[in-house]
Design goal:
The complex is a heterodimer of chains A (258) and B (325). With 258 residues, chain A is α/β, with parallel strands linked by helices. The longest helix of chain A is centred in the first third of the chain and has 17 residues. Chain A contains seven helices and 15 strands. Chain B has 325 residues and is α/β, with parallel strands linked by helices. Chain B has two domains: 173 residues, HUPs (Rossmann fold, 3-Layer(aba) Sandwich), CATH 3.40.50.620; 124 residues, 3-Layer(aba) Sandwich (Rossmann fold). In chain B, strand 16, helix 7 and strand 17 form a beta-alpha-beta unit. In chain B, helix 3 crosses helix 4 and helix 5 packs parallel to helix 9. In chain B, 57% of the residues are buried. Classes of the chains: A alpha/beta (258), B alpha/beta (325). Strand 15 of chain A pairs parallel with strand 18 of chain B, so a sheet runs across the interface.
Chain lengths: 258, 325
Amino acid sequence: MHIVVCMKQVPRDNSVKINSDLSINADGIEKIINLFDEYAIEEGLAWNEKHGGKLTVLSMGIDEWVEQMRRALAMGATDSLLLKDASFANLDTLAAAKVVAAAIKKLGDVDLVFCGRNSTDDESGAFAPALARALGWAQLTYVGKVLEVDPAGKKVTAERHLETVIETVTASLPAVVSVIKDINSPRYPSLLKIKKVAKIQPPVWTAADLGVSGLSAAATISSRVPPPPRPSGEIIDGPDAAAKVRKLVDKLLENQII
Amino acid sequence: MAGVLVYIEQVGGDVAAVSRELMGKGQELAASLGGPLNALVVGGDVAGLANQAVALGAATVYTVSDASLATYTTDGHVAAAIAAVGAAQPALMLASASFQMRDFGAALAADLDAGLAVDVTDLKVDGGAVSAVRPSHGGNVINTYSFAAGRPVVALVRKQSFAEAAGGASGGTVTSLPLPATTMRTQVNNVAPKTGAVNLTDAAIIVSGGRGLSDKDNYYKLIPPLAEALGGAYGASRAIVDAGWVPYEHQVGQTGKTVSPKLYVAAGVSGAIQHLAGMRTSRNIVAINKDPEAPMFRVATFGLVGDVNEVLPLLTAELRQRLGR
């Protein structure tokens, strides 16, 4: 079977700045594979090992992201694909999903797509559902356990871990599955494998290759600011821990916090 | 396109608190948009919820009722919503930002070619145009979205962002719509409550522990009793979840849960940026740490510099005595 894993590069932490053109400035922050996407890659690898075939790691991004794509290749992905075009830069999540859907359609033989539940920078979780709808496929989001992938019977069964319940759902293949953090333990690629993939250049497909044009963002950012500072707090003083604790409880009661 | 359509979620047969909040804000937004506030109830049995939605101020409650809709599926509920959007032609559709509603709302927006904003904390209408405020990057960036004219907007709203509708309204009508023919690509085999579920996102008080507690035994000796004395839930930093002290379910932060309780007690949690991302909007924060330079003190309402191993037993005992627990 052919599994695609969608991945994105993100800054390791979110101590980002805002540029004057409202773009995000993550200069000086280490870049990593979006954490949830690492779990998606591991899940894809596990089912690829079981059923054979191809595992393509796919990013809509820029050349800089290739380094993270190579990490996925070192983990065991068999193929990679970068979607890159100047016209992709300012798309919203829904339009980006249409671009990725066009690529998956062009690949032609894809049975299953794994994504992370959301990126740790944008945090919307809209990509996987938007991709599924653009493809006209089933979606299983917030998956904490994939119970069965049955390429012959064309179905996938998984547990969706929601806030207070766990749903067990069977979807027809092809399908898009988004995964949460505790679904598996992503493997560390060996140094040997990292060296082996160090020079791989993923094939690049542009808007023209995909036949997508005239995409526009329905949602655009009109303002971007840092959060308002929290009012400055109070350090509780006292001669010893017991006195400080009493004073703290006084404050919590006085301010009707408890 | 005119007015607002609110997707009503239910808890135990009653309209969920977050839906009452959306009806409250929806009333104001609909007036600014010069259209009606309508509601949508989708499910197996919709009559009770529809009547409640009328009382919450809906001009028209659209209902789509079918045995296949009793349990949520993306295909079924999106098809029902598209039928209601066709009938109501809203400029703005509101739902909550729960996992299920993100599954639903993003799919709906994709099908409608709508503008989408997720985890919205504020909404405005200016000159007939909707704008939505949503944090990203762990709360370090506050974005305001505007939307392309002529396309509807789907906003998935963070709970407790708005005041609930007062209720007691009357005069609204209920319109039943048939479920359009739709291919159901998923089948729900089972829905089970999470065992020992900690719904941190709903807790009014959370006590979190971190590496400052030294080991797993100390975490369980000190944190749950303090949470219990406060009538709250207990959380954890990523460091100690990754170390296997506490299940992931309890993790607060960028890759765990985002919480905004009335009181957040951070005990031995230094305040890494990933952790702050998940709790910095808490209304009150108490930081307890022996390191006075810990970043958590910079966001704390009250800071107590001290060793958690000494402070927490004293605090738990004091609270039990003063609160009579």
